Amino acid sequence: MKPNFPEEFFYLSLGEIQAKLRAKEFKVKELTEAWCDRLESRGPKYNALAHSLRKPAMKAAKYHDKDFKRERFRSPLHGIPYGAKDLLSYADHPTEWGAPPFKGQVFKEHAKVISKLEGVGANCIGKLAMVELAGGGGYRYANASSTGPGLNPWDITRWSGGSSSGSGAAVAAGLVPFALGSETWGSILTPAAYCGVTGLRPTYGLVSRSGAMALSWTMDKIGPLCRTAEDCGLVLQVIAGGDSDDPGSAGKSFYYTPEYVRPFSEMRIGWNPADLDAVEDPGVRLALHEAVQVLLKLGFQVKEVKLPELPYGTVASTIIGCEMASVFEPLVADGRVQQLVDKTQAAGIVAATDYKATDYLKAMRLRRVIQEAMGKVFDEVDVLISPSRGGVAERISERLDVGGRGRLPLGAAGNVAGLPALSLPCGLAQNLPVGISVVSRAYQENLLLAVGKQFQAQTDWHKRRPPLPA
Amino acid sequence: MRRRDLASIFLTAVPVAAQTPAATAPDDLTAARERVRGAGAELAKIAVPMATEPAFQFKAY
Q1: Which of B20, B31, B42 sits opposite A335 (nearest CB)?
Q2: Closest CB from B21, B25, B55 relative to A343
Q3: Residues A363, A325: Cα–Cα separation, whole Å
Q4: How far apart are CA A470 and CA A153, in angstroms?
Q5: In the prediction, which pLDDT does A276 show?
Q6: So what's the pLDDT on residue A275?
Q7: Which of A146, A160, A163, A216 is catalytic?
Q8: Which of B43, B36, B22, B41 is nearest to A351 (CA)?
Q9: Catalytic annotation on A85?
Q10: Are A362 and B28 in contact (CB < 8 Å)?
Q11: Which of residues 123-142 of A touch B (CB under 8 A)?
Q12: Closest CB to B54 among A137, A354, A368
């Protein structure tokens, strides 16, 4: 008899699903089939699914069932389905980067992160939608994708965020237990905040980008979007690690051990009150204020900090623009850039070829200055907190290329300096999720995850579910 | 005119395009180019000590 998976099952954490698998409440094959059905039927309602991988996933599930029968458990992710942003290659299946010029593109090998997850028994059931070419050229509307605008499961008239649009929406709607996304400047934290899920941007170089579309070699990072901070730690432990195929690899591993961080009472949390003042929506401000109060109750000492006055946004956009211009030079040269859905993005990529070498080098020298400045900030505090976004998800019809799009200075500074960040759901405003970000020094992911775990022990925002689709 | 002179005229008269910029909406392209110029100008205004090296590393292997 086929097991019955109630609606709430699809919102369980990875640990809870794994416990049920090991208790033999159902088989991996049944689990995989249930998630594939859900992703295929509901994914298109949110424009979240790029390609289903049901066939290879069901094949792998049979092997995993043999392992479970013999009680050969490979990892906490063994047998668990997940989705991957369509920027990551999956061998012999389409990897289209959300962009019409790359329709039908197929690679021969998996991206390194997908191979690593496969090695511990996690099962990729679908490629998830994304903003075309990860949006590096700058885009005007949420519609900038070959799969259409990413629709937010909390309100489908709103955007799910970008560029990991499908990853955010799919986790929020319970279409996958976890997803992989990527961030160059905001592409994990934004969909995580807008969709009410937990998103981790790892330190630059900690996770291999081999097999991932390059947008900006010195700024691209791959990370998980999950239901909880703990789940993010379990996924990061698998995907992190050195890789000689990625020139940016730091050669470091990660072991999820949040229990070994120093007591919070010995640590300082830094925040800039101006960040809160910059938030216009009173509901968002209230949610963030209450989140800060929860963090204070965890025992942290608080210190007000102000980031040094440096051109974080200009440095970030110049580095991304210059590297993107080089990556997509063939697309501009043969005119295929015009096939992009969003013409503003096409113009941005063409215009980026105007950058001068001295602009790039100046930005990279200023990057060193920013890294040193951030280092000094972290001499004073252990973690920084900031709103993940300046507001709730935009309406689908809203222009995204005006008013800074709710970007805050810490987002640019953190990405330019390659620092890790964790976005935690911390409230609702206008019935839409609000996220708060925690940022630390490089390679302090365990500290971020410990903060996230304790925050989620005190709150239930990560357990809230969007309404069922019509 | 010798053949060699004729050849030199043809060779210098045909410029080799590095790439053909694709046509985009003129307003969007003008605005995007303005942003690129603006970013360059903003960066140029900031003094950085001469000893500050760029933040990337090339590792020989």
Answers
A1: B20
A2: B25
A3: 15
A4: 11
A5: 83
A6: 86
A7: A163
A8: B36
A9: yes
A10: no
A11: 137-138
A12: A368
Amino acid at B21: P
Question: Looking at the complex, does the CB of residue A354 fall below 8 Å from at least one CB of chain B?
Answer: yes
Start-to-end CA distance of chain B, whole Å, equals 54
Contacts by B23-29 with C-beta closer than 8 Å and gap 24+? Answer: B23/A335, B23/A338, B24/A337, B24/A338, B24/A343, B24/A346, B24/A347, B24/A350, B25/A343, B25/A347, B28/A343, B28/A344, B28/A346, B28/A347, B29/A347, B29/A350, B29/A351
Tens-place pLDDT, residues A110-128: 999 999 999 999 999 999 9
* d(CA B44, nearest CA chain A) in Å: 8
Q: Looking at the complex, report in whole angstroms how far the Cα of residue B60 sits from the nearest Cα belonging to chain A.
A: 10
Q: Which residues of B40-53 are buried (b: 16+ CB within 10 A; e: fewer)?
A: bebbeeeeeeeeee
What is the distance between the alpha carbons of residues A366 and B48, in angstroms, rounded to a whole number?
A: 7
In angstroms, rounded to a whole number, what is the distance separating the alpha carbons of residues A187 and A97?
14
Torsional sign, CA A334, A340, A343, A347: negative
- Residue A407: per-residue pLDDT: 77
pLDDT, tens digit (0-9, with 9 covering 90-100), for A427-463: 999 999 999 999 999 999 999 999 999 999 999 999 9
Tokens of B32: 């995007």
Per-residue pLDDT at B14: 46
> Is A69 one of the annotated active-site residues of the chain?
no
pLDDT the model gives residue A178: 98
The answer to whether the Cα torsion of A424, A428, A430, A436 is positive or negative is: negative
Instruction: Pick the closest to residue A176 from A187, A186, A166, A190 (CA basis).
Output: A166
Q: How far apart are CA A468 and CA A31, in angstroms?
A: 20
- Biggest CA–CA distance in chain A, Å, is 67
* Chain A nearest CA to B13, separation (Å): 22
Contact B23 A367 (CB under 8 A): no
Confidence of residue B21 (pLDDT cuts 50, 70, 90): very low
A259 touches chain B (CB under 8 A): no
Contacts of B33 in chain A (CB under 8 A): 351, 354
Best mutation target, A312, A324, A340, A366, to test chain B (most B CBs within 10 A): A366
Residues of chain A with pLDDT under 50: none
Please give the pLDDT value at position B16.
44
pTM: 0.93
Catalytic residue among A160, A187, A216, A423: A187
> Is residue A326 flagged as an active site residue?
no
Domains present along chain A, CATH in parentheses: 11-470 (3.90.1300.10)
The shortest C-alpha distance from A396 to chain B (Å) reads: 20
ipTM summary value: 0.85
